[in-house]
Amino acid sequence: MKFSFVSLKTTIAWRYNMNRYALIALILLIGACVDRIDFNVGEASNYAIVIDGFISDQPGPYQINVNRAFDIESKLSVKTPLSVKRLVIHDNEGTQEQLKSIAQGVYQTDPNGIRGKIGKAYKLEIELLDGSVYESVPDTLLPSGSVDSVYFKQSSFTGPDGSSRPGFDVYFDSSVGENDSFHYLWKFVGTYQIETNPESYDTLCVEGRCPKPKPCSGYRSDGSELIKLRECECCTCWVNFFNDKLIMSDNELIEADQFTNIKAAIVPINAWTFMHKVHAEVRQMSLSPRAFAFWKAVKAQKEAVSSLFQPVSGKISSNFFQIRGTGGPIEGIFYATSIRSKAIYITPFDVHPPNLVTPVEVLFINDCRKAFPYSKIERPDYWN
Description:
- The chain is mainly beta.
- It has two domains: about 10-195 and about 235-375, no CATH class; about 200-230, no CATH class.
- Helix content is about 10%, strand content about 35%.
- The protein contains two helices and 24 strands.
- The relative contact order is 0.19.
């Protein structure tokens, strides 16, 4: 799973470069009006390997992403997926499963394979193509408590262009349950449904010539007109979006074993998000002290690099160590988590005044999966 509400690979890349060039970067930011300065950061093969993944008590499959840390100044690539010889998840009772490659740098368990269980400890073993072997420190899967309620309030937020835009602030209340460590990570996943029109074109049939229909539109051209053969296969998509900041537990937020009125995300009000409705889900994920310290450091790094006046801080410690082969840097984390979630729907009827939701002004005349990131044509099981 790609941890959509924070780019782990991007954050690691920032840390990897900022530790060496923090002073230079600060000078460049302050003196942005002067000529650009380029410097050699070495070969990409010298960058750290980055591991990103977890196992949970929810049904699999689980995904592990393996990448090479990258130079944020590179003009060639923003990430380098890395193939490995072997990835194996072990528990402390001898159960293990080797993951299969489903894409370069992406490895996945069998849907009916290993599954996390509260109280057990899990580790990841990784063998590189050169024979080097690394293991993660075993991580114990702790109980997650519960998300008690999710609710929303209409408000406004500042858009990228500085303008004020309407939206909903989504909040939640949760309980710690049997977990006495109060170490949690919260993830927001929003979903909305869109329709596009790949059968429509700016230029229709002219002088007996028609454009070639999109393969998934359900139409074909006989040369003079478009003929519908079947239902469109890529006109309806469900789009996921996520909170852009890490939300983590803090002792200041807790009262009587509960977290109350915690802001999870902002849902923008526009023609696309409320073409139908929005499914707003909050997931509460338990963390061991080691995993909590890792994500806390990631949060500190993410917030530091966005400010001119806050130094890069919060050293991120990898939970991997090498057990065989030649030395090489490795970053990231593999951890175990218990997940509980709760969701609500926000509909156009919740928008006031209703005219804030307007029809889409310009048709999107292509596959709906190309309209927004994280779009898919498969209808989610929870969508009703």
